[in-house]
Structure formats: C-alpha cells, structure tokens
Amino acid sequence: MATHNFLTLDKKIELINDSANGAGLSQRELSTKYNISKGAVYNILQRQEEYKCDFQTNSNKGVKRKLQDDSGRKIDEAVFSWFTQQRSKNIPLSGPLIQEKAREFAEGFGCSPGTFKASNGWLDKFKNRHCITFRSISGESAQVDPATVEEWKKRLPALINSYAENDVYNAAETGLFFKLLPDRSMVLPKESCNGGKQSKERYTVLLCANWSGTHKLKPLVIGKSKAW
C-alpha cells in the first residue's frame, strides 16, 4: 500500500505555484512530485484561494511579530539604559514612571501612540528580565518614646471625660515637602538602596478637627516670606 505525504501549508502553496508557473505541471506530475494522491492534488487546487489567503495571513503575522520583537527589544534596552542612569544618580523610580518612559521610547522608535501600552504585565516581565525589585530607600527616621505614649494614653481619658465628642479638638503641625521624591524605588540586585539629597523645601501646615469629625478647620499654611 502506497504511503502519501501530509503537506504543510508552505508545501501546498509550492504545489499551487508549480501548477500555475509556465506550462504548469499536470495533476499526475504534481501527485508524483509531492507523493500525494491525485485526489489530494485536486482538492488543494480547488481550495487554492483559501490556502493563499491563509498563507498571506500567516506571513503578515510573522512580519508583525518580528517587528514587535525588534521594537520590543529596542524599547527594553532603552528603558533599562535609562533606568541604570537614573539609579546611578540615586533617583527613585516607580513602576508607573518606568511604564511612562517606556511609552515615550516606543513613540520615539516610531510606534503609533497607544500601540505599545507598557501594561502591568510588560512591567512585571521587564522587572523579571533584569532582576529588578521594589525596596524602601534608607533615610532619616525619628522614633517616639513608647513610655511617653503609654503615659498619655492613661492620662487623656480623665482630661476629656467631661466634654462631648463634638467639643474635643485635636491640632497637629506637619511639614508638607512638596518637592520630595518617593521613599521607595525599583532597584537592581545588590544595589545599595540609597537616595540622593532630598529637597528641604516645605510648607508648615496646621491641621485641626474635632473628635467626632463633624468640624474640620481650614488648614493653616505657612511658607517662606518673600520681599515684595
């Protein structure tokens, strides 16, 4: 019993071209050349437009995938180069910032806006490829004396016991460092997670509200004075 081949799509297109080029091969000759039955040759020729369409679609996908791979590689290399430069300056980098920079590079490489989305999935793969982790940046810290806290937790109830919740207010002063960089960053393995010199520009803000939360005073803000 004769054994016939199973033709791939590429081979079917080759057979179709052999039947059409010049004088073209007959179905018998095609059957012999490709080691398939004459019935199989007939079916392929009858469906040649379908096979040509499939072949063209797959070819376009291949080109598109190659372009995506090439542009993806360029974007990855550009983002990683930028990442290492910024970290060498101790600049904190967050995930959204890296994604935005990737989209910026993509457009610079000719990708239409919105084509390369720099999704969270892309960010995860980028971090895994380069072993990037997200860590806290070392900095100054202040610690409140636990003994003082415990003492006031005992004294405070007696002091406010005779007042309604609406009449008990708490005010706190805080600093608003409006130019301060994040205290966490994406970093490379074994990289010391240190930040650069932080901006000291700040506003002093006083916040005040009553215990029940029904009355919140307008914040008081103090900034640097300017000579007019």
UniProtKB/TrEMBL annotation:
<dbReference type="InterPro" id="IPR050863">
    <property type="entry name" value="CenT-Element_Derived"/>
</dbReference>
<dbReference type="Pfam" id="PF03184">
    <property type="entry name" value="DDE_1"/>
</dbReference>
<dbReference type="GO" id="GO:0003677">
    <property type="term" value="F:DNA binding"/>
</dbReference>
<dbReference type="InterPro" id="IPR009057">
    <property type="entry name" value="Homeodomain-like_sf"/>
</dbReference>
<protein>
    <recommendedName>
        <fullName>HTH CENPB-type domain-containing protein</fullName>
    </recommendedName>
</protein>
<dbReference type="Pfam" id="PF03221">
    <property type="entry name" value="HTH_Tnp_Tc5"/>
</dbReference>
<dbReference type="InterPro" id="IPR004875">
    <property type="entry name" value="DDE_SF_endonuclease_dom"/>
</dbReference>
<feature type="domain" description="HTH CENPB-type">
    <location>
        <begin position="63"/>
        <end position="136"/>
    </location>
</feature>
<dbReference type="GO" id="GO:0005634">
    <property type="term" value="C:nucleus"/>
</dbReference>
<keyword id="KW-0238">DNA-binding</keyword>
<dbReference type="InterPro" id="IPR006600">
    <property type="entry name" value="HTH_CenpB_DNA-bd_dom"/>
</dbReference>
